[in-house]
């Protein structure tokens, strides 16, 4: 079963939204890509972070819940979690493990 971790988080109070996103793209994303078993990594930024209540949404796909757990418990996973504190408010982070299920797909024009 393909699964993913969905993460919603706010920036640290001492950073602007732009500084947070710049750090995430330049420093944090390369660390995330080192997670063992990671199949896909997607980062999304809300169009209006003040209204959304978060600055970044990350989605990390794995082949199984076990591989996802192993990735976060690995040395690379520890580096990712430690680095997140450099730009995100750890208390605000919401981590949601989910299974993907496509209900309906519409063709895009």
UniProtKB/TrEMBL annotation:
SUPFAM superfamilies: Dimeric alpha+beta barrel
Domain EthD span(s) in chain numbering: 12-90
Any one GO molecular-function label of the UniProt entry: oxidoreductase activity
One Pfam family, short name: EthD
Superkingdom, taxonomy of origin: Archaea
Entry protein name: EthD family reductase
Organism: Halopelagius longus
Classification of source organism: Archaea, Methanobacteriati, Methanobacteriota, Stenosarchaea group, Halobacteria
């Amino acid at each position: 079963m393909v699964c993913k971790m969905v993460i919603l988080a706010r920036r640290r109070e001492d950073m602007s939204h732009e500084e947070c996103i710049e750090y995430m793209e330049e420093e944090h994303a390369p660390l995330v890509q080192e997670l063992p078993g990671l199949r896909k990594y997607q980062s999304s930024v809300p169009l209006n972070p003040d209204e959304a209540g978060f600055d970044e949404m990350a989605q990390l796909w794995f082949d199984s819940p076990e591989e996802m757990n192993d990735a976060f418990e690995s040395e690379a996973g520890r580096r990712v979690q430690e680095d997140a504190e450099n730009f995100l408010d750890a208390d605000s982070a919401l981590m949601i493990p989910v299974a993907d299920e496509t209900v309906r797909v519409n063709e895009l024009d």
